[in-house]
């Protein structure tokens, strides 16, 4: 089966779900923060439904079918490199790359080591450092150093498997922001926004009503997830992929230009049969 053949892709059919709200990106507090981080107007989440059983090992077929689908083509949004306006793809996808992104973390306590290692003070203030550049990012504090500088003494606070996790990827993207990012002095806005977006995009099942849902660190409490019939614990059911698409010229999605802060993640819920697309294109966000 050739990956480029429409109709040879396991028969997936998609539908656009414009009514699905993403409060984590649209609330007043979130938009204020995204504006400060130069991401407002350049980050978007969209929801699509699909009609067949999702099989993670056939992710490339699934993603190719997505880009070929007549309900996706006029609705999937990306930013134009030239005009900076939201557009649709307008080119035929010939090849896709879907990199599996681990998504197993259930608690924000994952980030407590930032306090333990004096990257963030007990007060929540991020420890400053002498300015340096890790192109194109200005590094003026220990947080950005631990995110970007591989030969820094505290880089190993997070292992490679930690850094691969979707929760870490989200956190890092928000910390680095867009082209005119105004960095936070304290950690909490990054953690709070990361948590909101993660919960908004990722699905989990739960059979642990003893869990203390007042604990802020816990991402999924039993009010927000469905009961799992077999297991006795919370389990994330979503699969996450970092997606790139190519046409006959080269890379066409998420952009023609490659950048660490230009990304598209597909978060697939196999139970609800929903795909959430989280997209961002690096550049100057909305200012006012």
UniProtKB/TrEMBL annotation:
Cytoplasm as UniProt keyword: yes
Listed InterPro entries: CFAP300
The UniProt record lists the keyword Cytoplasm: yes
Superkingdom, taxonomy of origin: Eukaryota
Keywords: Cell projection, Cytoplasm, Cytoskeleton
Gene Ontology CC: axoneme
Main subcellular localisation: cytoplasm
Signal peptide, first to last residue: none
Protein localization: Cytoplasm, Cytoskeleton, Cilium axoneme
Family as reported in the entry's similarity comment: Belongs to the CFAP300 family.
Function in brief: Cilium- and flagellum-specific protein that plays a role in axonemal structure organization and motility. May play a role in outer and inner dynein arm assembly.
UniProt xrefs under PANTHER family: CILIA- AND FLAGELLA-ASSOCIATED PROTEIN 300 (PTHR31078:SF1)
Protein name, UniProt field: Cilia- and flagella-associated protein 300
Source organism: Equus caballus
